[in-house]
Amino acid sequence: MLAKVEYGGVQKYIKVPQIVENFDFQKFLQEVSDKFSLQAQLVTEGVLSLTDTSDTEVDANTFDELVKSGVRNFKVGYRQHPATDICIVLDESDSSVIPDSSPSPASLPVPPVSPASTPDFAAPSPASSNSSDSTIILPTTKNRKRARKELDRDEARQRVETALSSNPKGEEIFREYNKTKTLSVVTRKQMVNILVAEMIETYGRIPPMHVRASYALGIVTLFPYLQDPYSKHGYEHYYDPQANTGYLAWRLKTVQRNTCDGFRECSRPDFQDSLTTHRESLLTGDQLLGEECKEALSIMRHSMDTSVVREKMRATFDYRQKLVHDHDATASVLDVFPRFLDTAGLIEQDFSMMFGDHVSGRFLARWSSDFKHRVVTECQSVPSSSYVEELLAASDLEVENDYGWDSDMSALLLLLHLLPPTSKGQKKTPKMSSAQAANHVVRFIKEGASLTTFLDKVDARQPFLLCIGEQKKKITRFFIVVDQKAIPCSAQTSVAAFDVLFKTHYVFSLSYDEALSAFYTFIQTTIYNIDVGTTKETPRVKELRAKLLQDY
């Protein structure tokens, strides 16, 4: 299991050691110390302090329970000692501190800062080092305040730089600023959107005022030409704490208004959009960010070794998830990660990293044995049509069928018939038949036809399954079509290819086709068992599940 730990404005994933069934607090602190290259004695002497995102201290008695309850984000700092533990004598010419045997925060390493802004802490003099190992030199009060201010600026700068560097749009922002020493309105909006999204993800819908101010400070520190010379701090146009105005404040208000539009809207059941939920990898191993991530992207583009491509794709999973959940950048996912287009199995790999292999394998394990024959039986008892009769005949392995789909695909389309599209909205659209809706799930072209010509004419916005072969029941190649691009599928059967089609929605954070919403929701909750109870389901979905599972 991985936890996200912040130190000095830098965040890293760190493995949580486990002994038998309990998570070990001391070993975790040691892992933190090693990851951030801190002194080993800081752990043994109990100097390091671990807190959660609300700045509440976490100790050995509560650590295991917190991790098991789902807490994965922590901050590490230095434990503050009572003022009575030390005696400080300050003098402009020779300031010294003679503390007790307990280590003081001043004697500990400070979070990493750039050389240009490193606080001017005085080092221990040779005489004081000889007389006492615990005697150190501290700067005056004025110097300490100046050092603290410089440190705050550097932490704020690092926070903004990390957020932008981990976003695919960040490189464009840096490039434009370096070239023009300013940002256009469009680029500035992109930067603000990225930072507000990062702020909300880390601190919730209503980030504290000091956090907002820190992001604003980080912007003008990272991009000094963006400072306002006539304002008090130089960043008030991004966030003014007194008036609660500025670009960051306005964007926060927009997001808050859109996520909770009035009391009546918020009082409804809190159903989540399962497809757009940001999910972190369940697998262990470091995720690459910044320059390391860019290097991995470059290696993937040119490597001919499939194992290398899979490894780098696994290491860039979190970066890719941020990309697909950025509405402005979603369309560029296949441009940033073009190996989806020539390396089969990458969709299944990402899905397994989200939910684990046990969830990933549920559809193939349960469809044929638990659901297929029940769906066919249910369709035999409902009002029929020529289209349904054809599907029923094709689903029967004992009946010869030269023109229809194979047995598995026919049964899936029968499920769609049981969960047909419905008219929605105040201006109801014409009702779509299940035969028309099937064209949104799967399409067929004959072997030898031009794939490029077919893709040029595709007008579907949501993914669908493309089958190529001599006949519908004898498919030789499967593709998942997304954004007019064909992603190869290594599946050998239509049911396995459909499994990949369903997973594509999660991997690329794509909503279900409106005509197929009930159909896919049933498969999501009833077969894969994903987000059961938190996903909105129509009464028809619940009714059909009750029918099909009553003897289960």
Describe this structure in words.
It is a single chain. This protein is an alpha+beta fold. The chain has helices at 25-35, 41-44, 60-68, 126-131, 141-165, 170-180, 185-203, 209-222, 247-259, 263-266, 290-302, 306-315, 317-324, 333-336, 346-355, 357-360, 362-379, 386-395, 407-418, 434-438, 451-456, 494-507, 517-527, 539-548; strands at 2-7, 10-15, 18-19, 22-23, 48-51, 57-58, 73-78, 86-89, 96-99, 442-446, 464-471, 474-482, 485-489. The protein folds into four domains: 2-78, Phosphatidylinositol 3-kinase Catalytic Subunit, Chain A, domain 1 (Ubiquitin-like (UB roll)); 83-139, no CATH class; 150-266, no CATH class; 359-424 and 432-548, no CATH class. Helix 7 (185-203) packs across helix 9, helix 15 crosses helix 22 and helix 17 crosses helix 19. The longest helix is centred in the N-terminal third of the chain and has 25 residues, at 141-165.
* Poorly predicted residue ranges: 81-110, 112-138, 261-270
Overall average pLDDT: 80
Number of strands: 13
Helix content: 40-55%
Sequence of strands across the biggest β-sheet: 2-1-7-5-6
Task: Please give the radius of gyration in angstroms.
Answer: 29 Å
Ends apart, CA distance between termini: 34 Å
Helix- and strand-based class?
alpha+beta
The DSSP helix count reads 24
Please tell me what the overall shape is. globular
Q: What fraction strand?
A: 5-15%
| Largest sheet geometry | 5 strands, mixed
How many domains make up the coordinates? 4
